[in-house]
Amino acid sequence: MPHSSSAKHAVNQPHFSHIYVEKDVADHPVSKDIINRFSESRIIPIHHYKDVFSRAGQKFSAQKESQKLILAAGRPPFLYRGADVCPSFGNPSFYYASSVMNCIYNCQYCYLQGMYPSANLVVFVDIEKIFLEVERTTDKLSEENSLAPLYLCNSYDTDLLAIRRIIPLADRWLDFADTRQDVLIEMRTKSTSASLFSRRKPAENVIIAWTLSPDPVADTFEKGTPPLSARLKAAAKAVDNGWRVRLCIDPVLFVNNWEELYAGLTEDIARELDTDRIESISFGVFRMGKQFLKRARKVNPASPILHYPYILEGGVYTYPFEIRHKMLSFIKARLGRAFPQDKLFQTWK
Predict the structure, then answer these.
(1) CA distance 331 to 290
(2) Where are the alpha helices (DSSP H) in the chain?
(3) Using CA atoms, how far apart are residues 40 and 56, in angstroms rounded to an integer?
(4) Which one of 10, 21, 156, 277 is at 20 to 30 Å from 285 when CA atoms are compared?
(5) What φ, ψ does residue 110 adopt, rounded to 5°?
(6) Please, are residues 49 and 98 in contact by the beta-carbon 8 Å criterion?
(7) How confident is the model at residue 195 (pLDDT cuts 50, 70, 90)?
(8) Overall pTM > 0.90
(9) Are residues 119 and 174 in contact, defined by beta-carbon separation less than 8 angstroms?
(10) How many Å apart are CA 58 and CA 15, to the nearest integer?
C-alpha cells in the first residue's frame, strides 16, 4: 500500500493499514503474531517508536479515524506509582503498567488525547520485561515484610480486552497472574469480551472492572464503545463463571438530565446483575490534569465536556465543589440501595 501525505486519504484508510515495527523486536513472537493477523497491512521497519509516535504536526483527532500500529520494545520505567486521581481501593502498594499506549475507543473525556502526541497504538511486545519488573517489585515488598499485595492496574492507557483479538496481551497478563498469586491485577474495560472468561479458570488475584455509562452519555461521548446492555451482559457472564468483577461509574458527567440518566444506570445495574456477587463499585466525577486538559482542548475544540468551565484544584481540573458534591452524594445514595457501604468507593474527592 503506497504512502500518502494527504490527511484526507489517510483518514479514509482502514485501521491498522500500516504497522511500524522496531527492528529489534521484528522477530519477537508477539510481533509475528500481530503481523500475521494483518496480512494486507504495509509493514514499515523503524529504529525507535518515537520516530513515528512523537513526530511534530500530528492530528490526534484525524488519526483516531485511521489508527496505525507501532510495535516497540519496552523501556524503563515499566511500573508507575498510581496517581492520586485514580482509585487504589485501599491498597497501599498501588501501581500501574502500560503494555499498550492508546485505545481503540474514542471517548471525548479521555485524558489520553492530552497525554500523547499521536492517536496511533504503541504495543510494547516484549511484555516479559514488565512481568520481570512486577516480580522484582513484589519480591521487594515481601522482603520489607509488607502484608499488602502489589495492586497493579494494567489497562489505564488502553483497553486490553477490547483489543485482544488483534493484540494478544490480555491472555498473557492472565497467564502471568496464574504464576504470581501475590500480585492483585485489575483489568479495566468497556468491552464485551466475555468469552475469554468462560474458557479459563477464574483467577482469584484478577479483578475485571467494567466502566459503565448511561446509554445517552455513551452514545454522545464514548464513540465506538458497546452499549450499556452489552457491557452488563458481559459482566454478568464473567460473574457467572466465577471471576471477580468490579463496576466503575467514572467519570460521572454533568450533562442535561444527569440525575435521571444516572438513576436509570443504577437501576439497570441492580436489575441485570447479582449485586451480592459484585466485588465493589467505584464512582467519580470528571477530572483531568491541568496540562492534559489544555492539550485535549486543542485536539477537540468543539467538545462540551472538555470546554466546561472547570475549577483547578491541586493541578487537576474538575467541577466546582457544590456540583461534584451533589453528584457524588446522589450517586452514592442510589448505589446504596443495591450495594452495602463497604463495597462503595468514591474516587478522588
Answers:
(1) 26
(2) 7-12, 29-37, 50-53, 60-64, 112-115, 128-143, 170-179, 195-199, 215-221, 228-240, 258-272, 290-299, 321-335
(3) 28
(4) 277
(5) -70, 135
(6) no
(7) confident
(8) yes
(9) no
(10) 16
